[in-house]
Specification:
single chain, about 250 residues, alpha/beta, D-Maltodextrin-Binding Protein, domain 2, six-stranded mixed sheet, five-stranded mixed sheet, 11 strands
Length: about 250
């Protein structure tokens, strides 16, 4: 009887994708922390293994994929990093798509009394006082790259280029402002809404920077059957609804 039960359990384990396949590893931009966690929970509630999430700067994650990290899905906040991987044939053909979009905002500590209208030549230097402007590193982190584009388009980059506090990811930049270490910061709108210690002073015009899109793709090296299925779930109506709940734009 005992041997029969063990044989039956072993057969069930081998026949069940849920038990046989390991949880997919998802490398994703730091700004997706809450929304992707909610999506992973929803996916697990449907009977799948909950994906393991590794969140960091898109640049760092892209380099991990390039170095052969065992990733099953990559979601970044900058199309250029995905372009670089695609050019090296490191993505599964046909798996790449633009998942969601975002907006760029100027934030201050919640107690700040600053007010500004973001427009060409706006008084950013005066608002900074003796402080620095927190954002992602402007040469590598997508939020920082978009910030530099916007400030350049609005004609204020040269005045603040030496006042940038470049963080290794957008959440670190947000934390600088939240802790009062920087009087202002440029982050994504979705990040700002997640921290009550900051308030939004204004949104940068969409035309001042490249569109903020989050492409997703399955790395070529992935062998996890759940990876593509989870990616399809993120594109589905329930998946899009989760992202919209956290303030993202869906396509």
């Amino acid at each position: 009887m005992r041997r029969s039960s063990l044989v039956a359990l072993a057969a069930l384990a081998l026949s069940s994708p849920l038990l046989a396949a390991p949880a997919p590893l998802v490398l994703a931009a730091a700004s997706l922390q809450e929304s992707l966690s909610a999506a992973a929970d929803a996916w697990a509630a449907r009977g799948h293994r909950r994906p393991v999430l590794s969140l960091a700067a898109s640049s760092a994650l892209a380099r991990q994929v390039e170095a052969g990290a065992p990733a099953d899905l990559f979601i970044c906040a900058d199309e250029k990093w995905m372009d670089a991987l695609e050019a090296k044939h490191l993505l599964r053909a046909g798996s790449r798509h633009d998942l969601i979009g975002n907006r760029l905002v100027l934030v201050a500590p919640a107690a700040s009394t600053a007010h500004v209208v973001i427009a060409p030549g706006f008084a950013l230097v005066r608002l900074l006082g003796n402080g620095r402007l927190a954002t992602g590193a402007v040469t590598a982190v997508p939020a920082g790259i978009y910030a530099k584009q916007a400030l350049t388009a609005l004609g204020v980059w040269d005045a603040v280029r030496d006042r940038i506090a470049g963080a290794d990811n957008v959440r670190s930049a947000l934390a600088m402002v939240a802790r009062g270490e920087a009087p202002l910061g440029i982050v994504y709108a979705t990040d700002a809404r997640e921290d009550p210690r900051v308030r939004v002073l204004g949104e940068f015009p969409a035309g001042s920077h490249e569109p903020i899109r989050y492409p997703a793709a399955v790395p070529q090296a992935s062998t996890n059957p759940d990876a593509a299925a989870f990616e399809r779930f993120l594109q589905s109506a329930p998946g899009k609804a989760i992202f919209r709940r956290f303030g993202f734009v869906t396509f």
